[in-house]
Amino acid sequence: MTLATEHTAPAAQSAFAAGVQATARITAAFRGGTTTLPVLDGDGPFELRRLRSRGSEARVCVVGAMCAPLGGDRLRIEATARQSAALHITSAAATLALPGPTPEHASYDVHLTVAEDAELHWLPKPLICAASSNLRQTWTIDLAPTARLVLREEQVLGRTGEPPGNVASRLTVRRGGHLLLDQETEYGPDSPGWDGPAVLADHRATGQILIVDPAFESKPPGVQLFVDEPEDGQAILTPLAGPAALVTALAPDGLRLRRLLDTARMRPPRRA
């Protein structure tokens, strides 16, 4: 192993400071009555594994091949469900954001495209923002008018017994070329008021589930509140201005956050 020193060539120093740059690509296509995966291209820390299909649905697991994202990393996943395809994407373990050898932030960009009559379920394990980490995450989602989407996002701020890192996240969803949702959040010590009573208060885990379904056009869901015990967190389902619903949850830790989100996702929505 070669360590960078003050005598290292400038080009090598620049590459080291930039961190890892990697893009993984997944494409699902409907052929012969089932969904196939003509493109399954892992890169850098992303190792992509086919899982056993369920019915006509293709399933993919993202496995971390190295520790990432670190400060300075630029990571990207692109997933496309072509017409009539059904694609389910999960991950083998939580994503752990850590400080890196450079003060540069890390970036993690997810681009999802879902075509006509296709369905995509994005259900990875949580993101854990370790102390002193700095991550900027974006979700850019393009849906056809008849596409269906289930997307789960979970953030745990700090590992057990440590302060949180910094995370900024933006979720932009377009359906038929029109904006459906544009949401931006920031948590961590660099974001004033993030742990105040109007934001997370004493909670250190937050997440959401976005459900887009053309069936909601005729039967939109009503508002629902999910609370077992107040100290265990709470979640609320709210309809969006379109055939979609958003579940938002806060909890003291990742385990209770997942419990709330699973309850909200599995319970049939009440009609408005």
Automatic annotation (TrEMBL):
Membrane-crossing ranges are none
The entry's localization annotation reads:
Cytoplasm
Looking up InterPro entries in the UniProt record yields: UreD (IPR002669)
Specify the domain of life of the species encoding this protein: Bacteria
Coarsely, its chief localization is cytoplasm
Asked if the record carries the keyword Mitochondrion, the reply is: no
- Give a yes or no for keyword Chaperone in this entry: yes
Q: Which GO terms describe its molecular function?
A: nickel cation binding
Q: Which UniProt keywords apply?
A: Chaperone, Cytoplasm, Nickel insertion
Q: In the UniProt record, which is one GO cellular component term?
A: cytoplasm
Family as reported in the entry's similarity comment: Belongs to the UreD family.
Record's subunit section: UreD, UreF and UreG form a complex that acts as a GTP-hydrolysis-dependent molecular chaperone, activating the urease apoprotein by helping to assemble the nickel containing metallocenter of UreC. The UreE protein probably delivers the nickel.
Function summary: Required for maturation of urease via the functional incorporation of the urease nickel metallocenter.
Protein's name according to its UniProt entry: Urease accessory protein UreD
Species per Swiss-Prot/TrEMBL record: Streptomyces caniferus
